[in-house]
UniProtKB/TrEMBL annotation:
Signal peptide: none annotated. Keywords: Cytoplasm, DNA-binding, Iron, Manganese, Metal-binding, Repressor, Transcription, Transcription regulation, Zinc. SUPFAM superfamilies: Winged helix' DNA-binding domain (SSF46785). Belongs to the Fur family. The keyword Chaperone does not apply. This is Peroxide operon transcriptional regulator. GO terms for biological process: negative regulation of DNA-templated transcription; regulation of secondary metabolite biosynthetic process. It is found in: Cytoplasm. Binds 1 zinc ion per subunit. One of its GO terms (molecular function) is zinc ion binding. Zn(2+) binds at residues 95, 98, 135, 138.
């Protein structure tokens, strides 16, 4: 994982982005957690190490990571945006009880995109698939 963070930081340096300790910590947290945190969760996790860091600093860095193609912003309904450092093609399953989000892989749905383009005339730029259910921990609590 450390190599992945270092590679991401090198890419940022090549584009002229200054690597601050806060920027490094935010990116490291995202890549290590893989838990789809909100900006507030990232801030709370790092505030003891960086007492002068603000929530705005976290949001600004997340925006820059998104623009650099290193992070995806996940928006689900009225909840706060969550951030995903796994930029590979994958999907999400969301617990309806606790809100936990987990990644899962499935063969890319290119055929669905092609069919949609042919049927509608749209130029398809991508898709998002999410599944909803109850996670194992919440199911166990109900039992």
């Amino acid at each position: 994982m450390a190599a992945r963070v270092q590679h991401a930081l090198e890419l940022l340096k090549k584009t002229g982005v200054r690597i601050t300790p806060q920027r490094h910590a935010i990116l490291n947290y995202l890549m290590e957690s893989m838990g789809h945190p909100t900006a507030d969760e990232i801030y709370r996790a790092l505030e003891s190490k960086f007492p002068s860091m603000s929530v705005a600093t976290v949001y600004n860095n997340l925006k820059m990571f998104i623009e650099a193609g290193m992070v995806h912003e996940l928006t689900y309904g009225d909840n706060a945006s969550r951030y995903d450092a796994n930029i590979s093609e994958h999907y999400h399953i969301i617990c309806e009880k606790c809100g936990k989000i987990e990644d899962f892989s499935y063969p890319y749905l290119a055929d669905v995109e092609r069919h949609a383009a042919l049927e509608t005339g749209f130029e398809v730029h991508g898709h998002r698939m999410e599944l909803h259910g109850v996670c194992k921990a919440c199911s166990n609590k109900q039992s």
